[in-house]
Automatic annotation (TrEMBL):
PANTHER family: GLUTAMATE-1-SEMIALDEHYDE 2,1-AMINOMUTASE (PTHR43713), GLUTAMATE-1-SEMIALDEHYDE 2,1-AMINOMUTASE 1, CHLOROPLASTIC-RELATED (PTHR43713:SF3). It comes from the Bacteria. Keywords: Cytoplasm, Isomerase, Porphyrin biosynthesis, Pyridoxal phosphate. Homodimer. The gene is hemL. The modification N6-(pyridoxal phosphate)lysine is found at residue 267. This is Glutamate-1-semialdehyde 2,1-aminomutase. It catalyses: (S)-4-amino-5-oxopentanoate = 5-aminolevulinate. Its EC number is 5.4.3.8. It is an enzyme of class 5 (isomerase). Gene3D superfamilies: Aspartate Aminotransferase, domain 1, Type I PLP-dependent aspartate aminotransferase-like (Major domain). It is found in: Cytoplasm. It comes from Luteimonas kalidii.
Length: 434
């Protein structure tokens, strides 16, 4: 594959953008090499500036669940653009979005639109602290909730990838208010609440972890956290920025039957445009300005073009059987990858929840803890990443990210992916045997 134009662009980018990117995980720092620059995207494919085509399993990190450039989304945006880009005043589309989210996620009687997942989670935490009068929060090692100061403590995603789970610049006084727990550890959660439960404003969790690779919750774990929070007056926050509308139409809370007090969203609800949201019970949300004292605002919140994109995508994901078909695609992909690895004699396994999945180079058959994820052979993953990229398949450029399928990933696309994987695993095995 030729990458001359991407290389030239990356040289220019590094002169004016930190690391040459506008978001760290795009830089390929953990997998090595240089990122390709995208010229356009369509269906399951990305096309780079050198004319190379890739099957895309990143999907803009989750939003592109109906594939790129879907006509229903594109036409909705084109219509909205014709009426103007931004008003700074209420418009009907943001009311329709709020009503749609409340209908699809019944725990969200009210919502507030923001412009990113980060804004959604930091706003939800501020609301929880304001509503409870408490300051401490609990998060989980390896979970990533955006780059808000309170969350950059043992964080996942890029923070974990680059080995800086607790970022410089976060005052110790603030970091000390963030308590961390190991994911899927029932006893550790009980012990923490026994000692500090009365001081904890909120527990925020990715109900399915997607930022330390993909780690599903153990049976009963989310319910255990729900019971602990209820008992101690702590607000349970499901960060569904990634899982929302992906692991089920109603998100992880619908899939696992556990109702949080607050939920955060992003990605899919923007249809590819910058959107986030947080929501919950009316008596909580009415404490947000201007109906209540907890301040939060945003120039472009509820932007009419972004609302049009998100509403069009939510219409598509609401079609009967959408998530069942996507889950079947995920299983076909992951079963095929495991079979290809076995044929090549590689120690490899996968996790899959709805339309998201995780790839692990490990002898473990079940991976559902942060410790297991970080113990995997990341060097092998990095070699696999490049072996697949060279064969036209773009996986998440980090061993600590989840993968995503879309409704555009049809049987032919999955078969082509698995053909590339059989070659890639064989090349790894050949390298391994020297
Ligand atoms: P944004 O601020 O990036 O829109 O959302 C932050 C966020 C919050 N919560 C969860 C569960 C998330 O996964 C994210 C962002 N996800 C990463 C992917 N691991 C975004 C990719 C990036 O940082 O470039």
């Amino acid at each position: 594959m030729n990458h001359d134009h991407s290389h030239a662009l990356f040289q220019r980018a590094r002169a004016r953008l930190p690391g040459g990117v506008n978001s760290p995980v795009r830089a390929f720092k953990s997998v090595g090499g240089e990122p390709f620059f995208v010229a356009r995207a369509d269906g399951p494919y990305l096309y780079d500036v050198d004319g190379n085509r890739y099957v895309d399993y990143v999907g803009s990190w989750g939003p592109m669940i109906v594939g790129h450039n879907h006509p229903h989304v594109r036409e909705a945006v084109q219509r909205a653009i014709g009426d103007g880009l931004s008003f700074g005043a209420p418009c009907a589309a943001e009311v329709t979005m709020a009503e749609t989210l409340a209908r699809l996620v019944p725990s969200c009687e009210m919502v507030r639109m923001v412009n990113s997942g980060t804004e959604a989670t930091l706003s939800a935490i501020r609301l929880a602290r304001g509503a409870t009068g408490r300051s401490r929060i609990v998060k989980f090692e390896g979970c990533y909730h955006g780059h808000g100061d309170s969350f950059l403590v043992k964080a996942g995603s890029g923070a974990l990838t680059f080995g800086v789970p607790t970022s410089p610049g976060v005052p110790k006084a603030l970091a000390d208010l963030t308590l961390t727990l190991p994911y899927n550890d029932f006893d550790a959660a009980s012990a923490l609440f026994d000692t500090a439960g009365g001081d904890i404003a909120a527990l925020i969790i990715e109900p399915v972890v997607g930022n330390a690779n993909c780690l599903p919750p153990r049976d009963g774990y989310l319910r255990h956290l729900r019971e602990l929070c209820t008992r101690h007056g702590t607000l349970l926050i499901f960060d569904e920025v990634m899982t929302g509308f992906r692991v089920a139409l109603g998100g992880a809370q619908a899939r696992y039957g556990v109702t949080p007090d607050l939920s955060t969203f992003g990605k899919i609800i923007g249809g590819g445009m910058p959107v986030g949201a947080y929501g919950g019970r009316r008596e909580l949300m009415e404490q947000v300005a201007p109906s209540g004292p907890v301040y939060q605002a945003g120039t472009l919140s509820g932007n009419p073009v972004a609302m049009a994109a998100g509403l069009a995508m939510l219409e598509l994901v609401s079609e009967p059987g959408f998530h069942a078909r996507l889950e079947a695609t995920t299983h076909a992909l992951c079963d095929g990858l495991e079979a290809a690895a076995r044929e090549a004699g590689m120690a490899f396994t996968t996790t899959r929840v709805g339309a998201m999945f995780g790839l692990f180079f490990t002898t473990e058959t079940i991976v559902d803890t942060y410790a297991q994820a970080v113990a995997c052979d990341t060097a092998a993953f990095n070699r696999f990443f490049h072996a697949m990229l060279a064969r036209g398949v773009f996986l998440a450029p980090s061993a600590f990210e989840a993968g995503f399928v879309s409704s555009a990933h049809d049987e032919g696309v999955v078969d082509a992916t698995l053909a590339a994987a059989r070659e890639a695993f064989r090349s790894l095995a050949d390298d391994h045997t020297g």
